[in-house]
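Dear Dr. K.,

Following up on our conversation at the group meeting, I've run the structure prediction for GNAT family N-acetyltransferase from Bacillus spongiae. I'm pasting the input sequence below exactly as I used it, so you can double-check it against your construct before we proceed with anything downstream. Let me know if the numbering doesn't match what you have in your notebook.
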Amino acid sequence: MSIQLRAINKYNWEECISLKLDEKQERYLPQNVYTLAESKFVEDMHIFGIYKGNLMVGFAAYVLDEDGDMNITRLMIDKSHQGMGYGKLALIEIIEQIKRDYENKEIWLSIHPENNHAIYLYKAAGFKVTETGLESSDEIFLKLDLNEYCFY
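The predicted structure tokens came back this morning:
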């Protein structure tokens, strides 16, 4: 099984905003339309549809922030396609694309501390919960050292 990351553009943006999370997951991520809008104003933000063949099954975004840190800001799989391994495949593809295109040695992300499925996925890829001093009741930070990256 394989997936592809394809840029979001004028031909597929409506398909992207039609992707939905399970009702229990909606509090963990903003709607995709928010991230699409954000991408028009945040420099160095890359947005992708996650495709299985010609079907968009998810949405991903990452950004090189002002401090030079690489951040995965979005990874979601449509509720009707969850549990099929697409999230894992997409995360592997995102990490490999970042490694090819950037010299960063770390990838960061923040996540809701109760989003257990996502935390499990990121930890399986080698991300570690990292204290930054910016944590809040609805946000923890995870960091992946690319020198230690090995998905299991």
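Two things stood out to me. The two ends are 17 Å apart (CA to CA). Strands lie at 4-7, 45-52, 55-64, 70-77, 106-111, 128-129, 140-145.

Best regards,
J.T.
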